[in-house]
Amino acid sequence: MLMIDRPQYLRKLDAWKDHDVVKVITGVRRCGKSTLMLLWKRRLVERYGVAPESIVHINLELLENEPFLEYHRLHEEILRRCGTAPGRRYVLIDEIQNVPDFQKTLDNLQARGDVDLYITGSNAMLLSGTLATLISGRYVEISMTPLSFAEYWGARSGEGLTMQRAWSEYLHDGALPATVGFSGDETMLHDYLEGILNTVLFKDVAARLGVSNIAALETVTRYLFDNVANLVNPKSIADGMTSMGSKISPPTVSSYLEGLAAAFIFYPVQRFDIKGKRALRQERKYYAVDLGLRRMLCSNKVRDTGRLLENVVFLELMRREGDVFIGQGAGGEIDFITNGADGPRYYQVSESVHDPWTLERELSSLNAVRDNYPKTLITLDDERPVSHAGIKQVYALDWLLDDGEDR
Cβ–Cβ contacts within 10 Å for residue 193, how many? Predict the structure, then answer.
């Protein structure tokens, strides 16, 4: 089994270890959640000296664990494996959403006081409704994505690739961990990605929403993939599809958008009014969780490197800084704003700014923001970092390889 290190997420688990909260690891199917559990299990033993018998790990996608897809049985099995000896237990459960009423098991386990609980799930609905009510204030979500470029490069740097070639394959193949093992075999890669996309669309979206018109769902998905980094809303999507002969209503599109976001295929991003310090409830941009999955529906003809770079930067900012917004200010749109403990940070993304007019355009929105918080221009121009009156211009691949450990 391919085990790619995920240091960023392990550091988050380190920080929350033994705190009285349920650690909820969410993300699209096959992004590496189960592997993270295995890495964490090994870390508990090797770094923290936890005895293996004090760790209970149940993957609910494995056939041998099918009898535990009922919350009473799951609870009984966990208690059996915990045993009666005194001491803290570490309980790791993969794909908990497969168990109806699973929240009752979690609530009871957490109430014991001697269990450190970690769960994974592939649908955002995991944290809605009853679970959020039962463990309100007693869980932390760790949102997981496919491999960052730093993780991807770390997994492939021993193959003799140049960094630029690895970047090209990262954009083409996507970043789901298993795709690293399919490098060079286009047929296997295609079949693997197509299988995941079909599973997500049919099982995680269509089945949960009760969608009967699969063709319409696939068309909406293709439209979003084709329009990553573009502002859209349900009406504009419905109008666009109707003009192409696929009549659909805005409320139906809205339902599909919610389902696709819940399955972590897309991340909707709101616009933020910089001056008014408020979110704008109008059009949003949608970013794809994986560019390999995007290629399954958009084909190789959609190769807008600038928008692909913007998609990659969005995912990286989400990993590093949490919530990400699109900025709307007096000087125009700013690609991304984050708002961490140290205040906001502003980012513009451009494939190249060698052209003076393009450089001026990208800088103008940042210059219009009259504060002293960090402002960064990220490009694919392979040059040393430079400063434009306080705005730092960086080479995208260098920026992506700085994984933020010391931030």
Answer: 23
